[in-house]
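S.,

Sequence below, as promised.
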Amino acid sequence: MGADTSSIVAQRLVFPTGGIAAEAAALYLRGDAEVEGRDAVRVAPHRSASFATYFNAFPVGIWAEAGGTDRATLRLTADGDGTHRLFGIAAEGAPRLLAEVRGSGDLALDTGVFFEGLTWAWLETEAADDPVRVSAGEWQVPARPAPVRILVAITTMNRVDDCVQVLEALGGDELSDTIAEVVVIDQGTDPIAPRLTGSALANGVPLRLIEQANLGGSGGFSRGMIEAQDAGVTHVLLLDDDVRVEPESLRRLRALAAVAVDAPLLGAHMLSMLDPTVLHSMGEQMDRRAMWWHSVEPELSSADLAERPLESTPALRRFRPVDFNGWWMCLIPVAAVRRVGASLPFFIKWDDAEYGMRAAAAGHRTITVPGAALWHIPWTSKDDGLDWQAYHQLRNRIVTALVHERRPRRVLSATWAQDVNHLLCLQYGSVRLRNVALEDILTGPAHLPALLREGRTRAQRILVEAGQGVHPDAESRAAHGSGYGPAAPRGARAQTGRLLRVLGHQLVAVRPAAEGPEPVARAQGKWWRLGLADDVELRSATGKGFFRLRRSRREAFSLLVRSAWLRIRIGLAWPVLARRYRDAAPELADAASWKRIFDGETPRRGSAR
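The prediction came back faster than expected:
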């Protein structure tokens, strides 16, 4: 953290040496330079290199706002004659020169006192007649850091290879002084225990394995939070098991946690594992009335940062407040866990969003930290609206609204519109499953822990009974083809025309096709395509199977009426239901309640208060 107790190393200059990071080299370095190691690059003679990149520019605005920092110093070692310039930029405006030094050896470039909304600073190096090697770069800020000890909690279920790869990344030498302990909560049927080499990672960090029933992400991460309370640590880092980690991200979160005011939750960005330079999520804001999240910067949703230079992309330079950060990687103070509890027993979906709102109400806001990130499969590549997760997506959204929002109209109307969309897409199983979610909500908050252990199996069973399970390709009856059909309508006029065609088609009798079901590509699994069909095989998002969808006027009408009636009942009962769920939330999230669940003491559904 730095030898001087009045300063802290906020972040280091780091470079990719292999793996997925090497595929995302543009996030580390620009210009004519060659990576020589994790902390060193060589700039070619008469060439220049810029560190105005996602991982190596310094987010001074975040440090100023979260930690009260008013200046920063970049220290580095330069071998060879070159010129090193420090630039800064505000949310709006052009880059400006902050400092310049020429020469070699141990150098320091100081930003001076931050002014006029400076949000980022970065180094640019220009070589003279000989190459210049830049190494050991560290951004230091004046601060008196508090001690930070981190327990990393990883929840895993039947992803042994992925989880082992994450543990190998955490076991690197550069994290030996960053992590106090790693706890793996294994909830799968394919145990990870045989692949673990002992009670410590390769760098000596203690490793502990906990095996428990499948209680979903909320059960696994809650176990990690509760274990952290008795482990002598200050923070728990919730980390997914199927990610690729940039180890420096953990160091940066730890450094900011050491100086941040009011013990905030610190989150990391998500980069796409499918397109490693694409930023998939940089924090979420919540529309409380509709109870739905949206990106803090819609312009940057799925933006390729290799094509978005920091200097010319204002959206990258604005640090918006967030309501929550996804639990693919989120650092939570143990003080917050003691104050607000762990997750609600949601199994999956909405646990991170609800927790962020509950923590904020207790004074612990969330900050998503630029330059702290990992790679993850984006959720746009999943079938969570078509498969068993549809139950949890709707139930937990409405339960979150019951706990945090007093006005039901928008959330109920918005979720009903989603049901209409599912029906137009012939996804009757999804609507049937979502109706079960509404029925469960009406029974009261005790159903959350009572149904937790069967969170996945029950939903899968209902979906299969409704005829919407995933079929393997071997069962395909559709003729081989491209799976593509009419293009998406563009513009209000075209969309209105297509909608009228779809509605008209939904009202006419089903005509069996002699050729069998139509193959439909996943990208075309929308209302404007499926709504004109009678019998289709829709590719799953993973490409490893298909959904068989058949149109039925009777079933569609029955589900639509049932869906509307259940929402009317919830709307009428909202004041009473909201009070019951709000009153029950602290107990449901309490460590004692979770310990009873871990021990198998599941309450009866009828015991709701």
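The longest strand covers residues 132-142.

Coffee later?
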